[in-house]
Amino acid sequence: MSQASSVLAPRTRLRLARLIIDDHYSIAVAARLFMVSPVTARKWAAYCRSEGAAGMQERSSRPHRIPHKAAEQVKKRITSLRWRLRLCPAQIAGRLGLAASIVHAVLTRCGVNRLSHIDRVTGEPLRRCEYPYPGPLIHVDVTKFDNIPDGGGWRFVGKQQGDRNREATAKQTGKRHARLEPNVGTGYVRTVFDDNSRVAYAEICTDEKAVTAIGVLERAVARFAECGASVERVLSDNGSAYKSFAWRGAGARLGITHKRTRPYRPQTNGKSERFHHTLADGWAYAGFYASETERRAPLPRWLHFYNHHRHHSAVSGPPISRLNNLPGHHNRRRVAS
C-alpha cells in the first residue's frame, strides 16, 4: 500500500487526473509534472472519469477467477497425504500425477507446507495454546546433566582424555557404577517455566525427591509473585515426585491446582522440553568447563540473560517484557521513608 503523502498516493492521483480532465492539460505534460509515465497518467484519468474520486484507491492485482486452481477434491487428497504420511511435495506430486509446484502451492494455502507444523503422532496441524496473561499456568520438569570431571569432559578434550579425567575424578570421590565404571555424579536441574511469558526459573539439585521438588516450586512461586504474576496451576509429567502426597499437599497449601500430562506424551509439556534444549546449548555445553563447579557458577547469570535480554520468537522480545507490562505493575506509589 502506498503512503498518504507519496507521489502516487490517492490524493496525488486525483490532482493528476483533475489536471487532465478539468484544466485540459495534455497527458504528456501532466505526466512530466508529476514525474510518472504517460501510460500511468492516462490510466488514472480514465479511472477518474468513470468512478470519480473513489477510483483513485488501491486495486487488487488478484485475478477475478483462476481457471487452473486445484479442485477441492484434489486439495483434500494432497493434505491427507501430507498429514498421514508426511510426504514432501515431490512425492505427493508423483502419487497424484500433478506438478510439484501445484502441490506446494496447495500446502502453503492450507498452512501445512512445513512438516514442523504437523504433529508427529496424530498427523494433524499443531494447535499451540497459550494463556492470555502470565501466571495461570507454569510448567515444572527436571533434566539431568552428567557432572563434568576435573580437567574437562569428552565433548571438548576428546574421548580418551575425557575417560582419563573421569577415572581420576572417580578415584578422588570413590564412586563407581554397578559395573565398576567411574561415576562422576549427575546434576538434576529442576526448571519452572511460565506458559505465557516464558520466564524461567531453575535450580541445580542433587536428587529427584519430592521434598526437593516442593522446595523449588515454593521458591519459584515466590519469585513469580515478586514479578507480579500469581500462579494458579502447575503442569508436570508423571514422575514419582509429582504423584506423591507431599506434592499434593504443597499444591493445596500454595493454592495451586496440579495437572499432569498424558503418559508417554511429552509434547503436552513441550515448552519445558524446548527450554531444556536451549539450556543445554546456551549453558551446559556452551563452552569448555574444567570442572563441575566451573560450569555451575554461570547458571544464574545465564538465566538472567535468558529472561531479560535474550529475544524469544514467541514473545517478540525478552520473556521479562511480558511481566513488566502487567496491568498496575508500574502504578505502585513510593512509600515515603
Please tell me about this protein's structure:
- By secondary structure, the protein is of the alpha/beta class.
- It has helices at 10-21, 27-33, 38-51, 72-85, 89-96, 100-110, 154-157, 159-173, 210-226, 245-254, 270-284, 292-296, 299-308, 320-324; strands at residues 137-146, 186-194, 200-205, 233-236, 257-260.
- The protein folds into 3 domains: 10-56; 75-117; 137-147 and 185-324, 2-Layer Sandwich (Nucleotidyltransferase, domain 5).
- It is 44% helix and 10% strand.
- Strand 4, helix 10 (245-254) and strand 5 (257-260) form a beta-alpha-beta unit.
- Residues 327-337 have low confidence and may be disordered.
Give a quick summary of the entry.
With 337 residues, the chain is of the alpha/beta class.
List key phrases describing it:
337 residues; Nucleotidyltransferase, domain 5; 3 domains; five-stranded mixed sheet; 14 helices
Helix and strand arrangement:
Elements: H1 10-21, H2 27-33, H3 38-51, H4 72-85, H5 89-96, H6 100-110, E1 137-146, H7 154-157, H8 159-173, E2 186-194, E3 200-205, H9 210-226, E4 233-236, H10 245-254, E5 257-260, H11 270-284, H12 292-296, H13 299-308, H14 320-324
Parallel strand pairs: 1-4, 4-5
Antiparallel strand pairs: 1-2, 2-3
Distance between the termini: 56 Å
String of helices and strands: HHHHHHEHHEEHEHEHHHH
In the CATH hierarchy, the third-tier topology of the largest domain is known as Nucleotidyltransferase, domain 5
Q: What is the mean pLDDT? A: 86
The biggest beta sheet is recorded as: 5 strands, mixed
Q: Supply Rg.
A: 31 Å
The low-pLDDT segments are 327-337
Number of domains: 3
- Assign the CATH class of the largest domain: Alpha Beta
